[in-house]
Amino acid sequence: MNASTRLLILVTAALSVAAQQTPFAAPNQNGSPQWTVFHHPIKRVAVIGAGPAGLQAAAKLVEHNFSVRLFDRAPSPGGNWFYTDETPVREPYPDRPIDQGADVPGELPATRYYKEQEEGVSLEDRWKEHWQPRPVWDNLHTNSPKVITELPDVPYSADKPWVLSNHDIQRHVRAYASFHNLNANDYPTSSSAQPVTSYSTRVEKLEKLNDTQTWRLTLRKLERLPETGQIKAQWWTEEFDAIVAATGPYASPHVPNIAGIVDWSKVKDAGQYSVYHSQSYRRPERFQNKTILIVGASVSASEIARDIDPYAHRIIASIRPHDNLHPFQLRSLKRFPDTTEFVPEIAHFEPLAAHDRGIKDGVIRLINGTELHGIDEVIFATGYIRSNVFSMPDSGNTSTSDGEPENLHWTGHNISDPTLAYTNVRPWTIGKYQSYAFAKIWEGTAHLPTQKQMQEDYDNGKYRFRGLFGTKQSEGESLFRQYVAWLNNESLENGGRFVETWPIQNREVFVYYSNLEWVEGYSTLGNFTEFETLPASEWPSGKRDAAAWDAIVYDDQAW
Ligand SMILES: Cc1cc2nc3c(=O)[nH]c(=O)nc-3n(C[C@H](O)[C@H](O)[C@H](O)COP(=O)(O)OP(=O)(O)OC[C@H]3O[C@@H](n4cnc5c(N)ncnc54)[C@H](O)[C@@H]3O)c2cc1C
Ligand SMILES: NC(=O)c1ccc[n+]([C@@H]2O[C@H](COP(=O)([O-])OP(=O)(O)OC[C@H]3O[C@@H](n4cnc5c(N)ncnc54)[C@H](OP(=O)(O)O)[C@@H]3O)[C@@H](O)[C@H]2O)c1
Ligand SMILES: *[C@@H]1O[C@H](CO)[C@@H](O)[C@H](O)[C@H]1NC(C)=O
Ligand SMILES: *[C@@H]1O[C@H](CO)[C@@H](O)[C@H](O)[C@H]1NC(C)=O
Ligand SMILES: *[C@@H]1O[C@H](CO)[C@@H](O)[C@H](O)[C@H]1NC(C)=O
Ligand SMILES: *[C@@H]1O[C@H](CO)[C@@H](O)[C@H](O)[C@H]1NC(C)=O
Ligand SMILES: *[C@@H]1O[C@H](CO)[C@@H](O)[C@H](O)[C@H]1NC(C)=O
Ligand SMILES: *[C@@H]1O[C@H](CO)[C@@H](O)[C@H](O)[C@H]1NC(C)=O
Ligand SMILES: *[C@@H]1O[C@H](CO)[C@@H](O)[C@H](O)[C@H]1NC(C)=O
Ligand SMILES: *[C@@H]1O[C@H](CO)[C@@H](O)[C@H](O)[C@H]1NC(C)=O
């Protein structure tokens, strides 16, 4: 096809778009649906979560003229990157997802005031339980280069290093929120408009109403009242046509169920727990001259070990053997301080004589029979589990064993009810495409396949998580570029602007970084060109369509 033929196709497409403005298409003539049709036009959308994923979804939906509300339980935007010195409420022993403790008054709206130690709960704990301070420490640096850890519209300055601190990322995400008028102190754009954002607001419950086919959110907002030293709680409900759940992958810390762990978890030394999850780690200074056992061999384990190394007396790491390590984990094994003593997995914690004198006299038995003595503190750097952070009555079991929501189309939409969508891609890189897809699908300029087709695709495992840079044909970059091709094809068919794919120079930087920092040979620039030879079965439509891809190439000239 020559350039002028392509141009002709685009012009024809543009004209047919103008002619075809009905947002919600009816079934075709023989009555069978061609794509998913919504019960009614989608106007009001709630976004739950103001981290890198939710902020982008909210900004894009606002741009597309939806009536948007953005809720986050935290007092400010940033998600995982809203660092504070406050530590999260303590993780449960034995292991289970943190109980969200929704306690909603019978009649709404409702207001309540809490005093210090009301029902035996301190104001501090009540506040922290509501918003859950983040599992991030002061000196944390990214394990992803800035080129894949950057939101649109607010580029880092060129002199920033490739590896950024937690504080740099926090400022960056806040800058994105401010740029889009989504920060905590931003005012509505007009005096009549309802504000988009509501911070310190936790979504307690999500219900689908039968008669209107709308979603009802039950919300709880906490406010600290410095004048009276009280906390004010308000509950109310709001209704929406569609929901974006952007609540993040790390809702709940995980601790292993090792024999004796519950007994040891009760121990305090000078008011501070001796056994705790890495989510509460903040600063290294108090580890002066201590003997620390770190459990785990992944990123939290190696990075906390490095942080405390200048202070600690001894660092012991309990790790499990592995054949198939992720590049992050290989990096971690290289990054433990040289002085780390590696030991096998823990078999059990022997019973303790007392619970108020620390664990230094306790005995930890390893699976090879060896005993460890004289440990001051145990840090479980044993990762996180995803948990459903708001309750959905009558929804049954909605997640897999690792807590991922089930039965989602690759766009993130719930196949049985695509007015509910989850952010399920790497937000930094593919988030902007997924956000655009949310807006297009709900405004009618992109179509979801029929439910039957979506279910078939899901059952065939056709679609996987998008946005990691595994560079095999079937993952990473090629899936990324399919997203772009699909969006542009939908715009070609149904209207809307084209989007560009990820810049080639970013790929080059990523290849340098991953070879230097992760694993030599992990990726080559060659890995990224395999998209063109991707089997047709991997395309969303089940066939390769040269016109859709060519259209991207000619975007600049034609539109
Ligand atoms: C210790 C640690 C280090 C990490 N380091 C890196 C790194 O170096 N590079 C990298 O790319 N990624 C890193 N990550 C992954 C991190 O999760 C992502 O970078 C990113 O923050 C994910 O964005 P998100 O918007 O999907 O989720 P989050 O940032 O987790 O945001 C989710 C938001 O949803 C809100 N929320 C949840 N439930 C409710 C509710 N019921 N009501 C209202 N609001 C709710 C939360 O308050 C939160 O603000 C790290 C994660 C951890 C835990
Ligand atoms: N930027 C940063 O510096 C930074 C810092 C922290 C976290 N993160 C990110 O946050 C996410 C979570 O990382 P994470 O390190 O907290 O968790 P993680 O990657 O899930 O690692 C958990 C570790 O705990 C180990 N483990 C679990 N149970 C164990 C047991 N009983 N005994 C010994 N080991 C056990 C696991 O080993 P198995 O593999 O054998 O299960 C694994 O090594 C990742 O995406 C990571 O990239 C980034
Ligand atoms: C949103 O509304 C404005 C004002 O009516 C309009 O100019 C703009 O094109 C709309 N945006 C989209 C993406 O439809
Ligand atoms: C909604 O409809 C379903 C099926 O028609 C029914 O089982 C359920 O009880 C209804 N729920 C409410 C709250 O009316
Ligand atoms: C450090 O700890 C060791 C062993 O517990 C102890 O012998 C030593 O006196 C401590 N040193 C300091 C400076 O506290
Ligand atoms: C068990 O592991 C520890 C730590 O690696 C080691 O010192 C010890 O010799 C091992 N014991 C046996 C019986 O292999
Ligand atoms: C998807 O929607 C169905 C129907 O409303 C619901 O039962 C199910 O729990 C939802 N699943 C998820 C992961 O949201
Ligand atoms: C939900 O189903 C998954 C997979 O079948 C299972 O692993 C998990 O334990 C179940 N969760 C609950 C809470 O029943
Ligand atoms: C990238 O390409 C190289 C060279 O063809 C290959 O050895 C390597 O396995 C590929 N990487 C991945 C992650 O597929
Ligand atoms: C583009 O969209 C049309 C209409 O939905 C569809 O027939 C075609 O297969 C799509 N092409 C690709 C590559 O997705």
From TrEMBL:
<protein>
    <submittedName>
        <fullName>FAD/NAD-P-binding domain-containing protein</fullName>
    </submittedName>
</protein>
<keyword id="KW-0732">Signal</keyword>
<keyword id="KW-0560">Oxidoreductase</keyword>
<dbReference type="Pfam" id="PF07992">
    <property type="entry name" value="Pyr_redox_2"/>
</dbReference>
<dbReference type="GO" id="GO:0016491">
    <property type="term" value="F:oxidoreductase activity"/>
</dbReference>
<dbReference type="InterPro" id="IPR023753">
    <property type="entry name" value="FAD/NAD-binding_dom"/>
</dbReference>
<dbReference type="InterPro" id="IPR050346">
    <property type="entry name" value="FMO-like"/>
</dbReference>
<keyword id="KW-0285">Flavoprotein</keyword>
<dbReference type="InterPro" id="IPR036188">
    <property type="entry name" value="FAD/NAD-bd_sf"/>
</dbReference>
<feature type="domain" description="FAD/NAD(P)-binding">
    <location>
        <begin position="44"/>
        <end position="307"/>
    </location>
</feature>
<feature type="signal peptide">
    <location>
        <begin position="1"/>
        <end position="19"/>
    </location>
</feature>
<keyword id="KW-0274">FAD</keyword>
